[in-house]
Amino acid sequence: MNIAIAKPRPNFRLEQALIACYATVLASEAAILIFWYATEAVDNSDPLSVGLGWAALISMVVMLVYSIARRSKAMKRFAPLKIWLHFHIFCGVQGVLFAFFHCLPTLTAASPAYWMNPGVLAAIGVATVFCSGLVGRYLYSMVPRAMRGEQMSARDVEAELRALPDEGLPPEVKALASGKLPERVGLSGLISHDWKARKALRRLRHLGLPAPTLRLAERWVRLRRRYLAIGLVLPWFELWIVAHRPIAAVMFVLSAVHVALSYLFGS
């Protein structure tokens, strides 16, 4: 079989190490906070609760670095865009975790009026942005991307597919990349296509291909499957961006109001 050697993905080990590190940090923080709140009577005015509120806000602000990295060539040279995205997700999840425990004394209060507390409204905003981010991350997973994480256009995908040697790929591999989508399909159709693509990649890993061939085949199948859906995914992804940004702006406004009222009235 005559197949060119596929190089490993750049910074793949660093990417996997960072994901493991982020998961460990988040799990440790959650375990510590659960133990602390289970063994101590924490009030909204306690230094721990106030500190968590500030930590949540700082984490949410720091995650905006990803928005800068998307537009900064210097930051892209320093680290691939995918690395910045993982950092963005880590800061977002950490911010939600801290915000939840910061508001926990209020959330467990008996009075329904407490739910109109500016802090609770800010926490709802954080949760809404978080859920919106999950949807966006899922849609982003269906968009073709270059090795460094930058979004690819249909022309970019076509160029890379022409450059990838597919002559020696087994027929089973090419069969996994086949399939067509109708010109118009709803979100449920896109999700179905995505799950078929993920199933195809799982089957690919069970074909017993040599490691270099497997890397080439995975890239080829992934690009082919995403190329079929690129014209249908991008409108949904762009619609999500239009909705996500104002929601995030509202979250930061509510957080600023919460901080201001807390210091003015001690609420």
How would you explain this protein's 3D organization?
This protein has 267 residues and is an all-alpha fold. The protein has two domains: 12-147 and 240-265, no CATH class; 155-235. It is 73% helix and 0% strand. It has helices at 12-39, 47-62, 65-69, 73-78, 81-107, 118-141, 154-163, 171-176, 187-204, 211-265. The longest helix has 55 residues, at 211-265. The chain is elongated and about 70 Å long.
Query: Which spans of ≥5 residues are poorly predicted at pLDDT below 50?
Result: 1-8
Helix content: over 70%
Largest sheet: none
- Our measurement of the CA-to-CA distance between the termini, rounded to an integer number of angstroms, reads 71 Å
By DSSP, the count of extended strands is 0
General shape? elongated
Tell me the strand percentage band: under 5%
Number of structural units classed as domains:
2
C-alpha-based Rg, rounded: 23 Å
Order of helices and strands: HHHHHHHHHH
Which structural class should the secondary elements be placed in? mainly alpha
Count of helical regions: 10
Average pLDDT over all residues: 80
